[in-house]
Amino acid sequence: MAENSPSGDELLSLAASRAANRPHLFASILARYAGLNNLDDAGLRAEIGCDARTLDRLRLCLRPDADPGAFTLDVQRIAESLGLNAAVLAQIVREVDATDAFVRAPGQAPFSSTPAGMLKAARDHDEAQSAPGDPDLETSADSISGEERE
Question: Rounded CA gap, 140 and 150, in Å?
Answer without folding.
Answer: 14
